[in-house]
Amino acid sequence: MIEELAALGVSEVDILTWATFVAAAAIGSGAGWFFLRGSPFWSRVFGTLSLGAFIGTCTLVWRPPPADAELDVPLPERIRDRGYASSDSCRACHPGQYESWHDSFHRTMTQVATPQAVRAPFAGQVLSERGRNFQFAQQGGGFYVREVSTPDPIEVDEAFFEHAARVVMTTGSHHMQAYWFEAGDGRLEQIPFVYLIREERWLANSDSFLEPPHAEDDDLVRYTWSDSCVTCHSTGGPWDARDDHPDTTPEATITELGISCEACHGPAQAHVEANRSPARRYAMRGKETTDPTIINPANLPNRRSSSVCGRCHSVHPDGQGIRVHDFRPGELLDEYLSIGPMFDMVDQAGEIGDVEWLPFDERDTVGSFWRDGSVRVAGREHTGMVRSGCYLQGDMDCTSCHSMHDSDPSKQLAGPATDDEMCTGCHADVALDPTAHTHHAAESAGSRCVNCHMPYSAYGLLMATRSHRMDGPAATGLGGRARPNACNLCHLDRSIGWASVLLSRWYGAPMPTTAEREDELAAGLHWMLRGDATQRAITAWHVGWEPARSASDISVLRPALEALLSDPYSSVRQVAGASLTRIDEHVALDMSAIAADPIAPTLSDTALLSLQLERDDTSVAIPE
Amino acid sequence: MSQEGAVARPVSKRVLFHLRFGWWALLVFLSLGLALEAMHGFKIGWYLDVDQEVRRLMFRLAHAHGALLAVLHLAFAGTLYIASPDGWTTVFASRGLTIASVLLPMGFALGGFGIAGGDPGVGVIFVPLGAMALFGAVVLTSLALRRVG
């Protein structure tokens, strides 16, 4: 009943309040029946009332078993152990925080595959990749996938479901959603396709990452939940619980799906136990000291506070991802990851454009960075921030700009402050006369702090994302793995040489190398035609970015953007296609076809064609 | 118009007290109900925001308990008038009911101020005292009625 009333918008508290009254009526009527049982009339009246109220109470408080209890396939084992209590325990005392977390994409990062969670259509269609065909179907509240022999759908009947695997979990709910099924030996394996939520289309796993084109007979990209994903897409794990809990499946054990309260506040069982006492709770009120039984990242020094987010939002040096399993909020991430040595390695490789020249165990790590040491993979914000002056010389941490409980769910930017106010809180002198500092009109995009100091120079999920290494713009961008600079990511039709002169004149920046200073080619053309795959993808995204469209002559860039539809990298083609539809609403593209194969080259300008022949085909892989 | 031959029984001071208390309390707590509805109507964040859930609960409980206890006073007055129980149990039941009718709604209402997380304000301490007084009043009334007739 609670579920039904909740669906109608009645809060659970309302329902339980009414249930309390009805229960009180049941008890009162029962008492009336007891004391007046000598009177046939009143005993019947009170007896009937008591029975009715009792049934009413039971109806109000009855709730169906949770949806996942109906699943007959193993989920990752969820055990409240090792000091974890789960988010259910937090709700009673922290309703506001619980609610704001409940609205967040952190909560829905991994969910049981219920009809409410699954965003993709499982409508009997067949998706094909590398010669393998998968048919998707739904039956009741369950979602199924079955490998079939041909791209033609087969009939979805009882026989279909007998040989189909049931989808048990989803990961992602904001931009992209992946699906997990039980692979037969307790392992959860990802369906080799993801669903793009906003675009409402399926996409092969390999086409969702920025990675070199594959051969048709290559193996499918398949991920196993317990290999890596479990660490950051669930809470309280993973750990091998077989010693203490012999009934568990071999799959890695966790406390809760998704990123819940204890991912940031640490194991909360001791806190829950201690605060069962109302005397303790009321005694804690108004005290300056924080509750020692729980971690509040807002009260930690900046390095420890940002380590909480950094556990997942950072580059994990090769082979060290497993170490963060045991990290707990309140600790320093440096104790688990070799962050300093990683930066040394990255800096030493600063002149190397092609990471294939590096030793095998350094390639993935160095490949996550631009040559200037900035991260180029989305979702690794902590790694960028810890090299910023604001962090190293100031008190900045993630909560300086972001809030988990007082923000919109999309970017989780803190409170009502604008982007600029987050910076000018410390850099007040800039706020007094912004134009003197920015050399752009005060209300323009060029005067927004983040557009120069946190440009969109990281890539992931088919889009560019902001760098979290707060630094001043430098006229970089020539050569492989060179980071596109903030000036030219907006002024795409201007050259890097043009930017270097202005930066030197305005800020006294040292003039860059001769090649960059004398460069006269529009940076947008340079990166889209001659750049490596990351530069091409990021620049293609910027052509569709409104401030860049306003500041640049798009007609100069459009031929190069259209040429990217024939790029060997599927992700580059998709990003270019999305930007094309943004700059020209009359363009209609079949994005699924673009994702699958390059379309015929369209460059007719010989000058541009000769530039494209110089394309940097260094192998790039951005695993996000 | 009274029926011919019907004899009006005198109304005792205690019955009159509970009738007056009941109707006035009903007026007060129905007014509180109107105030709560107004806060819903004007979407007052102080009352409706998610993290004010405990305040909302406390005020609703104050309103509900106050109104129901007001009705209980009327029922108690009717019980005294019809069954005419007497003795110390009735006196203490009357006092217990009156005390409960003050402490319970007051405790809930005060509990709505100074909330912290899922906990009401310290004023909620009056609630268990009021609940005990109400429980005693009900027990005493029940016992008193057993001796009637």
Structure at a glance:
The complex is a heterodimer of chains A (624) and B (149). Chain A is an alpha+beta fold and 624 residues long.
List the SSEs and their pairings.
The complex is a heterodimer of chains A (624) and B (149).
Chain A lengths: L1 H6 L4 H24 L4 H22 L26 H4 L3 H8 L7 E3 L13 E4 L2 E8 L2 E7 L9 H5 L2 E7 L4 E7 L5 E9 L4 E4 H4 L16 H9 E2 L20 E2 L3 H5 L3 H6 L3 H7 L17 H9 L28 H10 L11 H8 L13 H5 L3 H4 L26 H6 L3 H5 L1 H5 L10 H5 L4 E3 L2 E3 L20 H5 L5 H12 L6 H4 L5 H8 L2 H11 L2 H6 L2 H10 L6 H14 L7 H6 L9 H7 L12
Antiparallel strand pairs in A: 1-5, 2-3, 3-4, 4-5, 5-6, 6-7, 7-8, 9-10, 11-12
Chain B lengths: L12 H29 L3 H4 L4 H31 L4 H24 L14 H21 L3
Helix pairs in contact in B: 1-3, 3-4, 4-5
Overview features:
heterodimer; A: 624 residues; alpha+beta; eight-stranded antiparallel β-sheet; two-stranded antiparallel sheet; 12 strands; globular; B: 149 residues; mainly alpha; 5 helices; 73% helix; 0% strand; elongated
User: What does the main sheet of chain A amount to?
Assistant: 8 strands, antiparallel
**What are the low-pLDDT stretches of chain A, counting only 5+ consecutive residues below 50?**
none
Write down the oligomeric state.
heterodimer
Report mean pLDDT of chain B, rounded to a whole number. Answer: 92
